[in-house]
């Protein structure tokens, strides 16, 4: 494969002369509308969001920031949070930003696949319930996904003679993915660097330096923080592994499948599979991706298909074989990348059919399947959004009850779900054990003498050891008991 073949536009990419219909812009606009109508108005802040927002929120103390996290999403929302603490406003701004980012990242692929295939790929990704749900949320996974799509597209366009803008785009998008989630940035860069080493078309210093430079720039903050807080990269990786339950060989494919339609975090993943018929698309997806690769190899133009599949496979590794739990959002980068070869396969099938009436029939069948798929996604979105809303409402109700007991900032919340509840109450949070341990019992008791403190326990759980002598207050309608000294 020559460099020219690796990056030349797909057949029909230039389109017919005249005015083109802005399909990709229409998909992005629809994505914004779907978020604003179906997700943004109904969502309070989830646990992880309160951690990310608290890092840059001038109105609330910063929650403990554990070793596996990266600060990219906090940097993204910092200008919003500096202006307003309104959750609905934050949701609206993030919905519009994510829709604009969807357009910009898939737009990178238009010279490679053409406008129709690019728009269909964006639609396949934007139509997933998990994409719509996390578009307006302050969570990193969607932004890693969009960065990965753009980075892979820029890499394919970094042919000999490409402008500096292409190489800068490649480096910047790898840096963005790494800044949003350090580990995902490393897994994204690995197949790109491997392609530079193994494929003659890309065996040049420019794309390799762009990828390596982006990885270095995106990881600089994470590495600096590793030395400042944990004593080095190795120590932070060790702490990250402990937080994740011990990174190692664990087959989590079954967990991912069971959690596909919720819960939003399956840890431990002992729930039964809900709505098995609605998970068929997930089982078919790798088959379609591999079929697209086979077709591309047979036609002699594999670059635009094989590379996104390779990057998707790399990004799935930590969530399929290295942890023992799952969450639907983990696979957003995989879905975003696999949407590209699936769209290419679908449009190729239609174009290969002769005569024209038969082609129209095949296109009609595929359109019906797409509508059915989007309907399934809508049904799951309704259910999972309701669950997320109920969880956030519970956090807010507990925070309101704590204020009713006299907790006012500066204050401290500890115990069960202390981080999100503390954020809602405007209090600092602390834990003496678990993944978010950031204080000793002795230090906690000293703080409890000088500032209002509440230890939380769920209704059927005993109070923390240090709070046995504290006064119990049942927080009616929440399932929590608060213990105050």
Write structural notes for this entry.
This protein is mainly α and 485 residues long. The chain has 2 domains: 20-388, no CATH class; 393-484, no CATH class. It has helices at 3-7, 23-39, 47-54, 72-83, 87-107, 110-113, 115-126, 129-134, 141-157, 164-180, 182-198, 205-230, 233-243, 253-258, 280-299, 303-321, 332-352, 356-404, 418-425, 441-450; strands spanning 412-415, 428-430, 453-458, 471-475, 480-484. Strands 2-1-3-5-4 form a 5-stranded mixed beta sheet, sandwiched between helices. The protein is globular, with a radius of gyration of 24 Å. The model is unreliable at 1-18 (pLDDT under 50).
Outline of this structure?
63% of the residues lie in helices and 5% in strands. The protein contains 20 helices and five strands. It has a five-stranded mixed beta sheet with strand order 2-1-3-5-4, sandwiched between helices.
Features:
five-stranded mixed beta sheet, 2 domains, 5% strand, disordered N terminus, 485 residues, mainly alpha
Strand content: under 5%
Q: What's the story with the biggest beta sheet? A: 5 strands, mixed
| Average pLDDT rating | 93
Question: Rg from C-alpha positions?
Answer: 24 Å
Q: What is the share of helical residues? A: 55-70%
Could you list the spans in which at least 5 consecutive residues all have pLDDT below 50?
Answer: 1-18
Globular, elongated, flat, extended or rod-shaped: what is the shape? globular
The number of distinct helices, counting runs of at least 4 residues, comes to 20
Major β-sheet strand ordering:
2-1-3-5-4
SSE ordering: HHHHHHHHHHHHHHHHHHEHEHEEE
Name the structural class.
Answer: mainly alpha
Distance between the termini: 72 Å
DSSP strand tally:
5
Total count of domains: 2
């Amino acid at each position: 494969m020559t460099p020219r073949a690796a990056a030349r536009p797909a057949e029909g990419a230039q389109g017919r002369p005249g005015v083109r219909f802005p399909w990709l812009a229409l998909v992005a606009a629809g994505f914004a509308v779907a978020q604003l109508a179906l997700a943004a108005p109904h969502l309070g802040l989830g646990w992880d969001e309160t951690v990310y927002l608290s890092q840059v929120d001038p109105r609330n103390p910063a929650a403990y920031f554990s070793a596996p996290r990266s600060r990219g999403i906090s940097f993204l929302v910092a200008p919003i949070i500096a202006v307003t603490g309104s959750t609905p406003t934050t949701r609206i701004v993030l919905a519009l930003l994510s829709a604009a980012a969807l357009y910009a990242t898939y737009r990178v692929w238009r010279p490679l696949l053409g406008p129709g295939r690019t728009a269909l790929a964006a639609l396949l990704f934007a139509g997933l319930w998990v994409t719509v749900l996390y578009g307006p949320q302050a969570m990193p996974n969607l932004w890693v996904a969009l960065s990965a799509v753009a980075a892979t597209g820029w890499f394919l366009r970094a042919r000999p003679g490409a402008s500096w803008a292409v190489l800068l785009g490649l480096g910047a998008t790898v840096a963005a993915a790494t800044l949003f989630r350090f580990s995902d940035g490393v897994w994204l860069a690995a197949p790109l660097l491997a392609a530079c080493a193994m494929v003659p078309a890309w065996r040049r210093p420019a794309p390799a330096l762009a990828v390596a430079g982006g990885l270095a720039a995106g990881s600089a903050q994470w590495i600096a923080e590793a030395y400042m807080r944990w004593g080095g990269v190795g120590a932070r990786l060790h702490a990250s592994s402990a937080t994740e339950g011990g990174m190692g060989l664990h087959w989590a494919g079954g967990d991912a499948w069971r959690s596909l339609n919720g819960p939003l975090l399956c840890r431990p993943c002992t729930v039964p599979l809900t709505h098995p018929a609605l998970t068929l698309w997930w089982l078919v997806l790798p088959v379609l991706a591999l079929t697209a690769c086979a077709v591309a190899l047979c036609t002699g133009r594999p670059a635009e298909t094989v590379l996104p599949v390779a990057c998707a496979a790399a990004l799935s590794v930590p969530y399929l074989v290295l942890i023992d739990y799952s969450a639907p959002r983990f696979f957003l980068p995989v879905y975003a990348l696999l949407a590209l070869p699936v769209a290419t396969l679908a449009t190729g099938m239609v174009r290969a059919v002769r005569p024209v009436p038969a082609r129209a029939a095949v296109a009609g069948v595929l359109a019906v399947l797409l509508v059915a798929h989007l309907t399934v996604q809508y049904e799951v979105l309704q259910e999972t959004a309701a669950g997320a809303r109920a969880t956030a409402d519970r956090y807010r109700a507990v925070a309101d009850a704590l204020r009713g007991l006299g907790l006012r900032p500066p204050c401290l919340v500890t115990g069960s779900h202390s981080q999100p509840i503390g954020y809602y109450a405007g209090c600092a949070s602390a834990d003496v054990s678990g993944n978010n341990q950031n204080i000793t019992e002795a230090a906690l008791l000293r703080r409890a003498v000088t500032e209002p403190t509440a230890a939380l326990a769920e209704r059927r759980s005993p109070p923390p050891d240090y709070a046995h002598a504290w006064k119990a207050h049942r927080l009616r309608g929440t399932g929590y008991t608060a213990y105050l000294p």
